[in-house]
Amino acid sequence: MAEIKPFRAWRYHPKFTENIDKLIAPLFDVISEKQRKQLYNEPYNSVHLSVPLGENPASEALASLKNWKENEVIVQDEVDSIYVYYQYFYLPNDPVKHCRKGFICMIKAYDYAENVILRHENTMPHSVNDRISILEATKLNVSPTHGLYTDSAFTLEKYMDEAMLNPVYQIEDYQGVTDALAIIKDKAIIEEFVTLIKEKQIILADGHHRYEGSLQYRKKKQGISVSQNGNEAFNYHMMFLTNTEAHDLRILPTHRIIKNYPSFNAEDILTKTAQFFSIKEVDDPMCLNEIIIGKQWTFGLILKNQAYIIKLKPELIESVAWKFPEQIKRLDLTVLHYFFIEKVLDILGKNQRKSEYINFERNFLACYTTVNSNNADIALITNEISIEDVKKVCFSGFTLPQKSTYFYPKVISGFLFGSVDELN
């Protein structure tokens, strides 16, 4: 189903290899303001292409790109290749070293209706528009999105492991993760990758906004091109593909923070919560995220100087009125958004994606601190979602509530760039 191909990546000139750690950057949607300011001080950091400064960011990115090409800051590889990308990482309270294995290629930017690329969450229009404007100006994918394929035979891993014996880059990034890149140039091996993925559907794990930008760009180019064969560079998008069957594919929870809620009153919230959930106060709030681990329809509720475990009254699960398949109605995040955010907070499902009151935070301690420092009203602590649940949602054709998944670790920007320009 999915058509992929090797490509000639643009990469930093070999003279920069020893300092490549100074040229990488976090993705545009996770980079902090402090990180931006620090990285802008490095004139050749990839942030100048991914999150450019200035009143017209797209023009700034294009100016940087032209300068870098003319002065051979970046140069294009001579041979079409598959780029193997490994990320080595640890998790809290876990001494085991994990390795997420995958490869970067170009994949056709399929419309969602074609049922080849499957999304699990919706995009926010302003973020998509931002990505489109930079893509149109530079004709460059600055960082790969993250896609998932399923292969229980682990057919490609042997080729990736062999390539990774000689990485071209290996650095520690801002997450404390070790990132390594290797290159496969052998045409016969590359054909193995192309052939295997041709039979797969791809789940879009991370990078919905960047993928949507490529999809809209492709449609626009198709509308103005006179003669096309479908193989033009603008039809493709740079993606990092990993195997869903690997044990080192991790999805961390993303918690919900409610800020500036109108006429907020903690007692009223607890009274309404009790209509739908059993409530148990917790003596040590710092254990809240550990207590709920693995427990269905169970969440942490943080109010100022108060912490509770709340668990849906099981008889209420059949009352979910949203028009979802049964398996999606029963997901923890559906329960949280329906029974707490809609029923307790009166924020209707159709308004939740754009609600000014709902914010997101991955760090549990930050949730606790934010509420108890009067910078938020409520924190809702969630469990992580499983890859099997993500599959259920994608194959059903529905989407999860926004910010439902945090695939860890995040890929980085700066190892390579993928052109969608016919000229290079």
Description:
By secondary structure, the protein is an alpha+beta fold. It folds into two domains: 4-250 and 408-419, no CATH class; 254-383, 2-Layer Sandwich (Conserved hypothetical protein from pyrococcus furiosus pfu- 392566-001, domain 2). The protein has helices at residues 33-40, 47-50, 57-70, 125-138, 157-163, 187-197, 208-224, 266-273, 288-291, 326-329, 332-344, 349-352, 364-372, 387-396; strands at 4-5, 10-12, 74-76, 82-91, 94-108, 117-118, 140-141, 145-149, 169-172, 178-184, 202-206, 236-243, 250-252, 255-258, 277-281, 298-303, 306-312, 358-361, 378-381, 406-408, 418-419. The longest helix has 17 residues, at 208-224.
